[in-house]
Amino acid sequence: MAAARDTQTKLGRTLISRQSILIVDFGSQYTQLIARRVRELRVYCEIVSFSQAVEKLREMQPAGIILSGGPDSVCREQSPRVAPEVFAQGIPVLGICYGLQLIAHSLGGAVVPGNQREFGRAILEVEEEGELFAGLPRTFRVWMSHGDRVESLPAGFRALAQSGKILAAAGNEECRIWGLQFHPEVVHTQHGTAILENFLTRICACRGDWTMAAFIDSAVDRIRRKIGPGAAICGLSGGVDSTVAACLVHKAIGDRLNCIFVDNGLLRKNEYASVLSSFRDHLHLKVAGVPAAERFLSRLEGIEEPEQKRKIIGEEFIRIFEEEARKFGDAKFLVQGTLYPDVIESTSVLGPSAVIKSHHNVGGLPLEMELALVEPLRELFKDEVRKVGEELGMDPRFVHRQPFPGPGLAVRIIGPVTAERLALLRDADAVVQEEVEKEGLGRVVWQAFAVLLPVRSVGVMGDDRTYENVAALRVVTSQDGMTADWARLPHELLERISSRIVNEIRGINRVVYDITSKPPGTIEWE
Question: What integer pLDDT is reported at residue 133 of this predicted model?
Fold first, then answer.
């Protein structure tokens, strides 16, 4: 039924209390970083589009609100705004950059285009300590990124800090509203975490007690109430996300969880047999293996467009899960390892903004589904999921596995997916995994893999001319997958990987290294 398609499941709503922070997003490149900093201070938070702020505010009843920065100008008539209700609840508000300008503009102050823009490092001079700057030096370095400036403050607001002649911080303690022109969430701002901590603890009275142990207790209770006396199935991918989700649900309902591991023909070399064995022997889960390679490859035949690939794979997974669920009779729920980055990239957080890509378990889901979704990790970042796995006592081999996309190697083959090209990529990827592990970098890098390009190049091998495929090597470092940087691998390691791929895999005669960060690129090529 269509209602089951609603990925905005209420699972997780009991986390929301007066101990939570609502982050209103206006399109800042740093919005996710604000959320990271708040959670690092052990306070739960959620990000919501400015267009949904009032609705979310009523539902969530947070302890505080943070207004993010953004690329727009409040001087422009059609710029993003929030309803006056956001400022009228008596809930503490902290505006950052665009957020400060929006506060000033909305409450009767004046914002004008700046004669002198500020981008990068600046020196902050605190004029009034108050609650926000309590315990901090009077002068320190901050990170600015703005063109407009606040020319005059609304009634009742006082300037708290300056950067040269530019207002850098202001507040109205009676109305419980503050604003910063700089970005406290970035590492370039000295004492930025302390400023956020002052807002969370001194102003919002958050206890800072959101831990993974507390999350597990709450999640287990929610899962039991949602599933009730019935059963659920879990689609395992072999990655950390679905594995942690399965262990969490198993803790809640025991053997009423039936796991399914589908061989979609898009897995890594020897992945199906080894992972299936590990699920049963080490995690003691009830797992049924479903061989379905021909089924997936048949549906992917001739498909080149990546979004279409993801949607086909997502739909086929669901249909298999539905078929398997009928074997268990009372299984009405589908457990998925959906994470917050999946949701952010697959849905339009900013209202009119672009979707980056459809993850097979979010934007790739079919509109009509027989199973209701259970997504216990939906509000977590990857590193938080690993902490949940550690707290559950899971084998470190599962907890610290590198992320692997749900659509598998299909999104690492640029262009049509065929059995022949899959075989080439599997062998190349196996070389990458072996060499990175031998170098001791398996838990240092975020992801390391090969991509098969739709390009052939001329080579010379054994005095003969070759005209074969090009493989790209992608290795990145990251904390949570929201941003990433290309790994500066030792040249000797790159040389070994390239040499082995070209010499051992007939059909690839050139290896290139991707040195693109995220942003502007994504980690996966598709």
Answer: 95
Tell which wins on pLDDT, 492 or 332.
492
The one catalytic residue in 45, 97, 204, 234 is 97
* Arithmetic mean of pLDDT over the chain: 86
Contact 11/378 with Cβ under 8 angstroms?
Answer: yes
Torsion over CA: 334, 335, 340, 342 (sign): negative
Asked if residue 486 and residue 352 are part of one domain, the reply reads no
Which residue segment(s) compose the domain that 128 sits in? 20-203
Looking at the structure, tell me whether residues 223 and 192 fall in a common domain: no
Structural domain tally of the chain? 3
443 domain residue, yes or no:
yes
* pLDDT above 60 for 367: no
Of the candidates 146, 183, 191, 250, the residue annotated as catalytic is 183
Domain termination site, one of 357, 373, 399: 399
Residue 232 near residue 375, CB atoms below 8 Å: no
Residue 188 lies in a domain: yes
Residue 75 annotated among the catalytic residues of the structure: no
pLDDT at 486 over 70: yes
Q: Give the Cα separation of 275 and 280 in Å (integer).
A: 9
| 126-185: pLDDT as tens digits | 998 889 999 999 999 998 876 788 889 999 999 999 988 888 999 999 999 999 999 999
345 carries an active-site annotation: no
The answer to whether 342 touches 362, Cβ cutoff 8 Å, is yes
Both 78 and 224 in one domain: the answer is no
